[in-house]
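Researcher: I'm preparing a figure for a lab meeting and need a structural model of a single chain. I don't have an experimental structure, so a prediction will have to do for now. The sequence is pasted below. Please return the structure as tokens so I can convert it later.
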Amino acid sequence: MIFGYRIGSTFRLLLSTLIICLVVGSLVAAHGYLQTDSGSRSRFLLESRNVEVSVNAAVEAAAENRIYSLQHLSRAGVDMGDYSDSGQTPLIAAIRNGSRESIDFLFPKFQVERTLHVKSKDTNVSAFEEAIHSGDFVLAEKIHRIVDEFNVGESMSVADVLTGTASLSQDSFGHLRELGIDPIKAISEPDENMPLIVAVARKDGARIKQLIQAGADVDFVLPNGETLLVTAIRSGDPDLAISLMNAGAAVNAPLTEKLPRGEPDIPVSATPIEAAMIEGDLTMLEILLHRGADPDRFRSDGDLPLVTAILDGDVVITRLLLEGGVDFTDPVFAQAALETRNVPLLRTLLEAGLSPDLEIEKGVRLLDRAVQMFAMGACKALVDAGANVQGTLIFAMQEGNAEQMDFLLESGVDWNELGGDQGSVLMDFALSTENQELLEVLLRRGATADALRTDGESWVSHLLREHNHELASRLIEAGASIPLPSPPTPIFW
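Model: Understood. Here is the structure written out token by token.
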């Protein structure tokens, strides 16, 4: 009986153990089944609604704040930290569109935290940057803390934030400082990826203004040697240029290249005035001159602005530079106007006060050079401005160039400025030097053939006495009186 009791106890123990094993096994199996079935059910549900089970659908759902779809996509095995075809992660899409519930759903997930440092492929902006741009500083701080604490991927960089495409408020800069990031340091470090350089490359005037307000150097020199002001002018952004000047940008930057003593210092790149002239921006040129830009400062090509304007034949820019106080007394400017034969430019310089008798080289004045160049318009402009005609007549006469004298007389110069009558002084010079070409010009222009020498003797008589029958005959052909032979001297016995 005792034996039977023991057998019964053992059997009951075995039965209890078996029941427990069956229950535990059933629970484990049920959990696995439920897990598998949950993913399967979510996938089935999504497919029945024609929703693609992919990260593309997750990004779209996150952007539209469709939590129900996000939950089912997650259960169906979609990687919530992956990129969509548009280059976004679900979290970036949610932040960008202000989908608060989607952000709260996605952020705790390991897949999302694993890729917090990655940037969207469409705008090259990370979740941290998007949070800063959207003003969600709580989320930004949370992301920054996780990335910094676990060294996930690359460390957060203020340069990344400041080179983003979205606008930043001044609160954003303050928040960055609270996170221990110094925007000014990041802005000022010379690196091709630094915010200021990136903003300039993008021609993002609004971002440049913001960076300047945050403490960036308003006279920062870009890798190509240009200042921000020059770049703004060359980019055709007058609003940015004016903002930079209002912030204190130097209107005479950049620095110059030091050359040997006695030679001018040439800027290492275009000056603001040079940039405005290249772009043909007359309004900007006027603003620069009004704000104190030096019109006498050499350009990067080694020329003076006024010389360039004259050689380009630009009367308007020439006038603006003259009004801006440029020193136009250097002979090089008048010489340039003569070389281009630009009479309106020459008249503009003369109206501004250029001396018509300016000596452009030793012994040669402007009118002399105009005669040498046979520049009729320039000659008339100089004569109208009161040039010393007598001096030029003497210059042309001493040159002995018949063509120059003919041209000078054609331009309206009165040969009697030299004294005498009917060109007698010029005739005296031509005959005394036996310059037949000059004589022909003077006779054709109406000079008197009965010219007298300084001693009162007619030139015909003198030439006959000197046996220069060729010149004497030419004067007689031109109407000179034939001298009568002197009567014989009477002989008294």
